Fold this protein.
Amino acid sequence: MSEIDLSEHGIAKSSELIYGLYDRPPLRETLFAALQHMLAIFVAIITPPLIVASALQLDLETTGYLVSMSLMVSGVATFIQCRTVGPIGCGLLCIQGTSFSFIGPIISAGMAGGLASIFGATILASTVEMFVSRILKYTRRVITPLISGIVVTLIGMSLIKVGIISCGGGYAAQANGTFGSFQNLGLAALVLCSIIFFNRSSNRYLRMSSIVIGLAIGYVVAWFAGMVDFSSVKTYAGLNVPVPFKYGISFDWGAIIGLGLVYLITAIEAYGDVTANSMISGQPYRGEAFMKRAQGGILADGFNSMLAGFFNSFPNSIFAQNNGMIQLTGVASRYVGYFIAGFLVLLGIFPAVGLIFSLMPDPVLGGATLLMFGTVAAAGMRIIASQRIDRKAILVIALSFSLGLSVELVPSILSQFPETLRNIFSSGITTGGLTAIIANALIHIEEYQDNKEQ
C-alpha cells in the first residue's frame, strides 16, 4: 500500500520504526528500551506524592508508602493500558503514571479532610472520565482546545506556587523560620541549573535523564551538607503489601467536583496522547477502529485512577513524554510496556525505594519541579496560541485567568462563602476551568467584516 493510501485510511507511515506495535524485540533490546522509558517517567511518577506529602506534612513512613504505591499502581495501570482488559485499554505502548494535573485540588482536599478525603474524591470523581470515554465524540464539542489550553495553563501556574515553596524549604521551613534561606535557595538553584545544563546536551541519553541527574546531584550535595538524615529510617527491609483503604475513605463534594473537572480535561488530553501514539506507531488515527482504541484508552485512564484510589495512590494519566521516546528509539512494541510495568511494580514492592526518595530535601525536589511546572504552563499557552484568538476567545481567556488566579492569589476572598462552596472554588483550576466552560458556552459575539475599501 502506498503512502497516499495509508493517509487516506488514517494510517501513519511507520518506516522509521524498528519494531512495530505487535513485534517482540529480543530480550536485550526490550530491556534497553524499557529502561529508557523508565528514565523518562520515574521522577514524574514519584514527584506528586512527594509534593502532596510535603504540603500535608506527613511522616516519613506514610510518605514512603505513598511513593511505593504510586510506583506499583502505575505499573499495573501501564500493563492494563498496553495489554487491554476487555474494553479497558488502548493496546498501544502507552505508559501511565501519577498525574501532575491533580496536585492542586488534591492538596486542597487533603488540607480539608486528610488522605481519606483525597482517596474518596479520587475514586468517585474518576467516573467522570469513564463516562466521557463513552460519549467522546460529543464531549469534544464542549471541551474545546481553547478550554483545554486555559485549564492546562492554570494547572501550571498553580503548581509554580507549590514548586517555589519547595525551593524555599517547604511548609516545615515556613514553620521553623528557615524558609528562603541561602542554603535552601542555593540547593534548589544547583538542581535547576544542572537540569538545564544536561537538557541542553547533544547526547540524547544525557538529555533524557537530565532530571534524574539533577536530582542525584542535589541529593548528594544535600547529604554532604547534613540535610539528609538516613538514621531516621528504622529499616529498609521487608516488602510493601498493598492494603486497600489503608488510610480510610471519606467523601467531600468540594474535593469531588474539583477533581472531576480535572478528570474532564485529562480525558481530552488522553485522546490527544492516544492519537499521537497511534500516528507514531503506524496505526490508524481516524475512523471507527481508532475511536474504539481512543475510548478504551480514556476508559483505562479513569479506571486506573479509581484503582489508584483503592490502593492509596493518586489519579493516573497517560504520559505524553513517552511518545517522544518511541520516536527516539524506533520501538513501538507494546511488549516493551509489559517490562516497564513489571519494573514499576517491583520498585513499588521494596520499601527502600520509597523511603530513600522520601528523605529527599524539599529544595532538591523544588529545583526540579519548578522547571517541570513551568513547562506545563508553557504547554497550555502553546495550545491557546494554536487557536484563533478572536474577541470571544480573549473574553473567555481574560475571565478564566482573572477568576482562577484570584482565588489562588487571595484565597481569603472566599472566606464568607459556605464551607462546601469554599472547598469547591478554593482551587484556581476549578474556578478558572468552570469559568472557561460556562463563558465559552454563553458568550456569543457576531464578528462583522469590514467591507470598506482599504
In short: The longest helix spans residues 103-134. The radius of gyration is 22 Å.
